[in-house]
Design a protein that fits this description.
The chain is mainly alpha-helical. It is 76% helix and 4% strand. It contains 7 helices and 2 strands.
């Protein structure tokens, strides 16, 4: 059977994805078979008619028929291979054009995805710099990380990008940003919720300090992955812009 591509779905889960089966790849052989059957049938009928006419007495009609018969046989013998060759060439041209159009559409979608990913990564990198500078014990910053793009395209990138390093880096970024966002939300809840009064200021500051320190130790990892991903995305966009495939005429 077709080999399966193992895709990491997050949460320690993997999924085997099989590539789509090619469609219509038996069509040329089916056309050749049908043409040969029709050729054999026509030749059989012509030979039967020729055999019948040879039994008739010599006449102008018989001589005219036999002349037309051999002209027809020669025409069929020459015309059918030419027709098959032309049909095969047309089929190959159609297949090439279809593949080129499919590649162009995939490249367009990939370029669009990479540009949106680049913008999302830059936005998150800027916010991580803000966290590193201003988030200290006793302070609160509302999370403004852009997770929607990374979450919504978590599976799409495996269809568009054949680069396990880049895909793995993006998954790592998504995990770290989600973790930072949850800790920041927890910091807001602790700072403004009923837990602060219930646990007392000393216990609150201790708990908040632990949360903020965890955030600050995760930010460098996320930033390092973002810088790596931005470099790889830039290379991919450069390759996309230099693609030699042009739209078919």
């Amino acid at each position: 059977g077709q080999p399966a591509l193992v895709v990491f779905r997050g949460g320690g889960q993997f999924e085997a994805v099989r590539p789509p089966q090619p469609q219509g790849h038996h069509e040329p052989m089916r056309l050749v078979h049908t043409s040969l059957v029709w050729l054999a049938a026509c030749l059989t009928l012509l030979l039967a008619a020729w055999g019948t006419m040879t039994l008739l007495p010599q006449s102008g009609f018989r001589d005219s028929f036999l002349g037309n018969f051999w002209a027809t046989v020669i025409g069929v013998a020459i015309g059918v291979p030419i027709a098959l060759a032309l049909n095969r060439r047309l089929q190959q041209d159609e297949d090439t054009s279809r593949l080129q159009q499919s590649k162009l559409e995939t490249d367009r979608r990939t370029t669009q995805y990479l540009k949106m990913l680049q913008l999302s990564l830059l936005t998150n990198a800027t916010f991580l710099d803000l966290i590193a500078q201003r988030l200290l014990p006793g302070t609160v910053i509302y999370s403004n990380l852009d997770l929607e793009h990374l979450e919504s395209t978590a599976s799409l990138k495996y269809q568009l990008i054949d680069d396990i390093v880049l895909n793995g880096t993006i998954d790592s970024i998504r995990f770290n940003l989600r973790f930072i966002s949850r800790l920041m939300d927890l910091n807001v809840q602790l700072s403004f919720g009923p837990f602060r009064a219930a646990m007392g200021e000393t216990a609150f500051l201790s708990e908040q300090t632990a949360i903020i320190n965890r955030i600050r130790t995760t930010v460098p990892d996320a930033k390092r992955d973002i810088d790596k991903a931005l470099q790889l995305v830039g290379q991919k966009l450069s390759q996309q812009s230099q693609s030699p495939i042009k739209p078919a005429a």
